[in-house]
């Protein structure tokens, strides 16, 4: 009897260990996408939807996006006086061309408020976000990312199509949603790393003091 109990206990422990191991090896589809990503480049179209069910939508802003993991990106709007945002790995630069002003802050101070922080860094997504499957829509798999700590946005929805990020919706509230659609997507291509280093254009004011690059 003792032998049977002992064997049963060992078998149960073995099964539990196998389940824990398989859980540790199992990766979320969104995490799979991030794990294999080195660079991401795409055009984007961005609209701001306000007033909830009234579906008030502002004119779409277009631009270009480049990312090199970890911690570097360029997000630039196509308009002549559009904004340009650069992460150089240490600093966050925001160039307001119409104001002829550049604002710089250490990334460490604002990392939690960067909507694509989950994509930029090597830490597992679920360290900072709860991932919730949000269903299939328009031929895409949607996932909701709920921040575990307070940020200026309430949540983010990411759409995967053929394993690639094709849309991102940023919820600042139930009545204010920024919707971004990516096109001409290229991943893991060689990018010019010099473009992730920002130089203040002549004639522009600088607000803030950049930290030296490591």
Polypeptide structure, described:
By secondary structure, the protein is an alpha+beta fold. 18% of the residues lie in helices and 44% in strands. The chain contains four helices and 13 strands. Strands 1, 2, 3, 4, 5, 6, 7, 8, 9, 10, 11, 12 and 13 form a 13-stranded mixed beta sheet that branches. The chain is globular, with a radius of gyration of 21 Å.
What is this structure, in a nutshell?
The chain is of the alpha+beta class and 214 residues long. It is built from four helices and 13 strands.
Rounded to the nearest angstrom, the distance between the terminal CA atoms is 65 Å
Give the assembly state of these chains: single chain
How would you name the CATH homologous superfamily? Answer: Lipoprotein localisation LolA/LolB/LppX
The CATH architecture category equals Clam
Compute the number of strand runs.
13
Uncertain regions spanning at least 5 consecutive residues: 1-26
Q: Structural class, please? A: alpha+beta
Instruction: Tell me the β content.
Output: 35-45%
Mean of all residue-level pLDDT scores: 86
């Amino acid at each position: 009897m003792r032998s049977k109990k002992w064997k049963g206990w060992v078998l149960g422990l073995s099964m539990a260990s196998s389940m824990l191991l398989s859980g540790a090896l199992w990766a979320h589809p969104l995490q799979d996408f991030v794990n294999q990503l080195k660079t991401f480049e795409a055009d984007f179209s961005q609209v701001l939807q306000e007033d909830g069910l009234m579906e008030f939508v502002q004119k779409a802003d277009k631009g270009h996006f480049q990312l090199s993991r970890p911690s570097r990106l360029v997000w630039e709007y196509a308009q002549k006086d559009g904004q340009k945002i650069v992460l150089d790995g240490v600093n966050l630069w925001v160039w307001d061309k119409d104001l002829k002003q550049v604002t710089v802050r250490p990334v460490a101070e604002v990392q939690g408020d960067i909507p694509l922080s989950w994509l930029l860094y090597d830490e597992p997504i679920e360290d900072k976000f709860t991932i919730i499957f949000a269903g299939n829509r328009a031929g895409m798999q949607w996932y909701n990312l709920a921040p575990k700590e307070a940020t200026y946005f309430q949540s983010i929805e990411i759409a995967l199509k053929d394993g690639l990020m094709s849309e991102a919706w940023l919820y600042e509230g139930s009545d204010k949603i920024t919707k971004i659609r990516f096109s001409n997507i290229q991943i893991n291509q060689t990018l010019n790393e010099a473009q992730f280093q920002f130089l203040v254009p002549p004639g522009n004011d600088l607000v803030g003091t950049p930290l030296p690059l490591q």
